[in-house]
Amino acid sequence: MSSLPIRKVVVVGLDGLEPSIVDAMLARGALPNLARLSDGPVAPRVATTAPAQTPVAWSTFATGLGPGGHGVFDFLRRDPATYRVDSGLNRYERKSALLPPKAVNQRQGETIWDLLTAAGIPSTILRCPCTYPPDRLRGSLLGGMGVPDMRGGFGTSTYYTAAPGSSPREAENLVPLADDGRSPIATHLLGPRSPKSPEGARVDVQLVRAAEPGSLTIRSAGEPRELTIREGEWSGWLGVKFKLGPLQSARGVVRFLLIRRDPTVVLYASPINFDPAAPLFPISHPPEFARELADDIGPFHTAGFVEDHNGLINDRISEDQFLAQCDDAWRERRAMMERELSRLDSGLFYCLFDTPDRVQHMLWRHREPDHPANRGRDVSPALAAAIEDQYRRGDEVVGQALDHVDDRTLLIVLSDHGFHGFQRQFHLNTWLHREGLLALKPGVAPGEAAGDFLRGIDWDRTKAYAMGLGGLFLNLQGREGRGIVPPDEADALRRSIADKLTGLRDDERGRVAIRSARPRDEVYSGPFVADAPDVVVDHAPGHRASWSSSMGGVADGPLHEDNVKAWSGDHCVDPSAAPGVLFMNRPFRREGASLLELAPTILQALGVDQGPRMEGNPLR
Predict the structure, then answer these.
(1) Residue 459 and residue 481 in contact, taking contact as beta carbons nearer than 8 Å
(2) Is the pLDDT confidence value at 322 over 90?
(3) Cross-strand pairs, 78
(4) Cβ neighbours of 301 (radius 10 Å)
(5) DSSP states of 141-158 as a string?
(6) Residue 276 CB-density burial (10 A; 0-12 exposed, 13-18 middle, 19+ buried)
């Protein structure tokens, strides 16, 4: 091992690698490049955050702070004054009607690259979550999870059909087609929303049956003017321009999947991504960095959620078509990494590969024959093997990085959390309702009538409510707009709720569903604890907060319910049951390693003092 000082640190993030799968594959010799970094057949573990969620965990990696220090606690957050539910990653603010809206990052705290910049050391950061809007730094940054699609969502697709009575599904636009089976079809793409056009700006397109059977040509004013697509295959990119006003336009890129051409067209359009050459809002620093990447590697996905999971959840695309799109995500990211590593001679390089996480979310049911999501669906050994294929691809990426490692390089490979099956969901708001802690408006019953986003709740009679995946909140006087819980009673109520939830059983399955529930002061410290859930709920593996409660709904029926969605794997469980993995090419302290300690470790390697608020210690 070289004693020369380290000049560069290369960090490869492989989102969601489950340690038990890594161990089994290491034992079989299926991960040769990770084996080069391992002292044995068991992968070193790294403790994740509470909750074990991607934006929370990678924000801790970036800052060396727990959630109470960086302020990211969930994918969603609520405004306590108005009870409005919004993104927990970023927000938009508009100080004047004369000024355009401005994106604001919800993540707080100094990052590794902030401190390196102050020390004059460059960084290249590719797709780290919670980097939108992009941080200013010495070097280059491309935003990751948190960058929206052009509709402002996390993955808003469009489904075109002539079938009567069709309706849109989750996070989807539905565009009816008038198709007689012969004539060209006039239709459109929906772009950014605006106060003047809530439905959104439009780009006209025409669908024309090509001479070749099973083929369709899309004509538009975009680039290319004519794009021919074939049944069952993803198209190339179509660049489009949406007119937003007399002097403003927005450019996007979109791909299509022709599901069926005859007798009537059924067409799927991916979420429209910002055009990396000219995004509506900056997605990189410097702003031209995204364009330079596209010039070298071609157009690429810019939205924070690259893999089109909603299309699979909605049964619009098949699992094989989902995996084909994931293949493209791997190729894009590897091309970015190669471009940047080939020119890196000093400083920090970081690149996140999200795809293993998304594939496990969507295909985990194939690993568990008894999974409720398998009812009415085929179970495929080949699709179960597709999960391990993601680990092999990750190992290939590690080999690619090793090609750029010399005796003055520290290589770090890690995942932010592990993975489990998600078979049962717990309706936390329903439990609160039955405990007399949550009330619905007069005439509103649990279920569909209660709606999402906390709309059905009677705040004048509610003491506690849930939204997001991490826990629940008190309806606190002086904090919530219509709070009724006196501050001097809050601690006792937090403890009472936590005690009742701890050890809660799923009697139908005959096992504990919630391992523990903890008042927030036992979990978090730092300047943003006031934004945290009042009670943090730690589910047992196999269980998770329900789809309804996570969106602020109040479900009807049993407290525990089967999860039958294609989203069949998850990691939002007791953090002690979902550690990630951690490898380095240099000796490090393996016992008790935590995500909190990666920022101090990287800074120490590059000779920079860690931030005064950082909570961890270097691992080397």
Answers:
(1) yes
(2) yes
(3) 85
(4) 25
(5) EE--TT---TTSSS--EE
(6) buried
DSSP for 481-502 reads TT--B-GGGHHHHHHHHHHHHT
Q: Which residue has the higher pLDDT, 39 or 373?
A: 373
**Total Cβ atoms within 10 A of residue 380:** 14
Can you give the residue ranges of every domain in the chain? 8-72+107-147+304-419+578-605, 157-274, 423-576
At 372, phi and psi to the nearest 5?
Answer: -55, -30
Q: What is the pLDDT of residue 195?
A: 65
Q: Are 283 and 301 in contact (CB under 8 A)?
A: no
Q: 509: which 2 tokens?
A: 């399955």
Tens of pLDDT, residue by residue over 167-196, are 999 999 999 999 999 999 999 999 998 766
Inter-residue contact 203 to 189 (CB < 8 Å): yes
User: Strand, coil or helix: what is 83?
Assistant: coil
Which residues are registered as beta bridge partners of 422?
Answer: 542
**Of 39-43, 154-158, 489-493, the least confident:** 39-43
Confidence grade of residue 39 (pLDDT, cut at 50, 70, 90): confident
User: How many residues can be counted in the chain?
Assistant: 620
> Residue 387: pLDDT above 90?
yes
Among the ranges given (99-113, 447-461, 539-553), the one the predictor scored with the smallest mean pLDDT: 99-113
Q: How far apart are CA 259 and CA 95, in angstroms?
A: 44
Query: How far is it, in rounded angstroms, from Cα 286 to Cα 280?
Result: 15
Whether pTM > 0.90 for this model: the answer is yes
Please name which of 591, 613, 614, 354 lies closest in space to residue 602, comparing C-alpha atoms. Answer: 614
Asked if pLDDT for residue 138 goes beyond 60, the answer is yes
Would you say 230 and 214 are in contact if contact means Cβ atoms under 8 Å apart? yes
Q: Does the pLDDT of residue 275 top 70, yes or no?
A: yes
- Assess whether pLDDT exceeds 90 at residue 583: yes
Sign for the pseudo-dihedral over CA of 80, 82, 88, 89: negative
Number of Cβ within 10 Å of residue 495's Cβ equals: 15
**C-alpha to C-alpha distance for 156 and 147, rounded to whole angstroms:** 13
Q: How far apart are CA 446 and CA 444, in angstroms?
A: 7
With a pLDDT cut of 70, the percent of the chain lying above it is: 99
Cα distance between residue 412 and residue 350, in whole Å: 9
Tell me 272's DSSP state: P
* Mean pLDDT, the chain, integer: 96
Query: Are the C-beta atoms of residues 132 and 149 closer than 8 Å to each other?
Result: no
- Quick check: helix, strand or coil at residue 348? strand
**Residue 565 Rama label (left phi>0; alpha psi -120 to 50; beta):** beta
Structural domain 8-72+107-147+304-419+578-605, CATH architecture: 3-Layer(aba) Sandwich (3.40)
Of 394, 386, 227, 218, which is closest to residue 318 (Cα–Cα)?
Answer: 386
DSSP codes of every residue in 386-454: HHHHHHHHHHHHHHHHHTT--TTEEEEEE-S---EEEEEEE-HHHHHHHTTS--BPTT--SSGGG-STT
Q: pLDDT at residue 103 above 90?
A: no
Q: Strand 542-545 and strand 471-474: pairing?
A: unpaired
Whether the CB-CB separation of 161 and 177 falls below 8 Å is answered with: yes
Instruction: Answer whether residue 17 shows pLDDT above 70.
Output: yes
Closest-CA residue to 13 (of 57, 43, 47): 57
Closest CA to 485 of 459, 517, 521: 459
